[in-house]
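User: I'm preparing a small set of examples for a lab meeting where we compare how different chains pack in three dimensions. I only have the primary sequence for this one, and I'd like the structure in token form so I can line it up with the others. Please keep the answer compact; I'll paste it straight into my notes.
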Amino acid sequence: MTPSKVTVGLIQKSCSADKQKNLQETLRCMEAAAAGGARILCLQELFSSLYFCQTEDHDCFGLAEPIPGPAIEALVGFAREKAVVIIAPIFEKRAEGLYHNSAVVIDADGSLLGTYRKMHIPDDPNFYEKFYFTPGDLGFRVFKTAYASIGVLICWDQWFPEAARLTALQGAQILFYPTAIGNCESDAAYAAEQHAAWQTIQRSHAIANGVFVAAVNRVGREGALTFWGRSFVSGPFGQILAEASDVREENLLVSCDLTQVTTTRQHWPFLRDRRIDAYGPVTERYLDKPVPVKSSKD
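Assistant: Understood. Below is the structure token output for the 298-residue chain.
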């Protein structure tokens, strides 16, 4: 039987070009988070390297590794030793010429519960991910860990309400969003607006689905990008339970009372009142005219 409360630990770090150093520093941060009571540890997107997608460089494919690979094997041992769940986002080499932006979920006994492959792949200045990553083909997934049923989505996925909804409908109590997001603008007001939008959309997923949302971002300057950190956890009612620094590395530890998922959904029954008979057109790219609602007996 899973506990009603669990402490999540978000590992917010800066990164270097040295993969092994990044891994060892991350393990030290995880050690401290586990000692502080964290039972589910989530690492930032592409945690073991710099955010290389700022340029299109074939040499960067050398950073990818298979599942399981060296980084995952090290984390498996840690999970088993500390009895913690780990969400490990990596650059996955699936086959020659086939790569994904993925996250591996490791249960508290060290077993691999499965992999989520990023579904939405951006292509913007300094975020040239389509050059590197094939869109995910495993769909939206929920992983029943020793401590909670969790969903994992990655960075650009966080802007899409459909992704959050489909994951929540499978029983997720916590949605984790490993992230690498920042800005290259010197305009402080615009940067603040970007951050506010990023946090608002994820808090809205918490409210609309009655779940906890945990977003972990990297911090520091890499190339043209300044990553804004500010990892946070939102409760099912959208309240910010805790938020990390915008400039420092930090372990953000937050206790989540999973009974709040049930309580919130009972008082705000959005899932009950969904008009599933009317949502079919959402799978269209664009609607040129209204679509009539099909008759329903519900």
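A couple of notes for your slides: The CA atoms of residues 53 and 128 lie 5 Å apart. The two ends are 34 Å apart (CA to CA).

User: Perfect, thanks.
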